[in-house]
Design goal:
The chain is α+β, with helices and mostly antiparallel strands. Helix content is 29%, strand content 23%. The protein has one domain (12-271): Creatine Amidinohydrolase (Alpha-Beta Complex). The structure holds magnesium ion (2 copies). The site of one magnesium ion has 6 residues, from strand 3 and strand 4.
């Protein structure tokens, strides 16, 4: 965590394989989006995701994490991350975070989004603000990545984005610190860890071809969390609701390629201040 770790870039061929894995994650999340409604259980969503990933040549890589048997993490309301799919029935107004990963041909994608069950009309205004703030902070964090730049610029940018949103929205947001982004490639979780908050160090130098999962987790209150007795589910200690967005992204010499976005990030990157730089083909 002190910047001595030297980052390695992926070859173009490896990035193409990671795009295939990332696209499968993006399509799975797209399918899930349409399935989320009141009355559905989180386990039903998990089955939809597993079926979709396996029928498209992928492996649900969360099942490769020791002790974890599901395809998704589904975290509801005060649950931050690592919620286990089960018999919980989603209700109108629930704030649901869905985290999904897939491995294809030995390469991995990892992404997450949050949404209110029942849509905008069913949502509390503060939940809509939290979702917008968290998603914007993800794009701000990614946009801070450039070849030759420094890795921990991500945390500076996420924190600045959340601070600006808090001031604009007149709300208190907490950035969770116990869980962070990570490198990704032949395995879903690789070094280095990537904080979502400003740290004193600048971190290692970013290189062309570096791939990472950036994943801010933000709450409507305190950032303190604890793990439930199931040994997985992370909840806010003050019971406030939490939100999680994640993308896997490749740093390229010319800009960024968001491997788990359906459009590669084309629509969002420029607005966030970064160039869209996919590989051709
Ligand atoms: Mg994830
Ligand atoms: Mg991740």
């Amino acid at each position: 965590m002190f910047g001595r770790h030297k980052l390695r870039g992926r070859t173009d061929e490896q990035l193409m394989l990671m795009r295939a894995a990332g696209l499968l994650v993006a399509r799975t999340l797209d399918v899930l989006h349409a399935e989320i409604r009141a009355g559905v259980t989180t386990l039903e969503l998990d089955r939809v995701a597993e079926e979709f990933i396996r029928s498209h040549g992928g492996i649900p890589n969360f099942q490769l994490v020791p002790g974890y048997a599901h395809t998704l993490c589904t975290s509801v309301n005060e649950e931050v991350v690592h919620g286990i799919p089960g018999q919980r029935v989603l209700r109108e107004g629930d704030l649901l975070s869905v985290d999904c990963g897939a491995e294809v041909d030995g390469w991995n994608g990892d992404a997450a989004f949050s949404v209110v069950v029942g849509g905008t009309e069913a949502a509390r205004p503060e939940d809509l603000d939290l979702i917008a703030a968290t998603e914007a902070s993800l794009w701000a964090g990614m946009a801070a990545m450039r070849a030759g730049g420094r890795l921990y610029a991500v945390g500076d940018a996420v924190e600045a984005s959340i601070d600006a949103a808090a001031a604009r929205d007149g709300r208190r947001y907490g950035i969770v610190e116990e869980y962070v982004g990570h490198g990704i490639g032949p395995k879903m979780h690789l070094d280095p860890q990537i904080p979502n908050y400003a740290v004193r160090d600048t971190g290692p130098k970013l290189v062309d071809g570096f791939t990472a999962a950036i994943e801010p987790m933000v709450t409507l209150g305190s950032a303190d969390t604890h793990v439930l007795a199931d040994e997985w589910t992370v909840v806010t200690s003050d019971g406030s609701r939490a939100c999680h967005f994640e993308h896997s992204v490749a740093v390229r010499g010319e800009g960024l390629w968001v491997l788990t976005a359906l459009d590669g990030g084309e629509a969002m990157l420029e607005a966030a201040g970064a160039a869209y730089a996919p590989l051709p083909g």
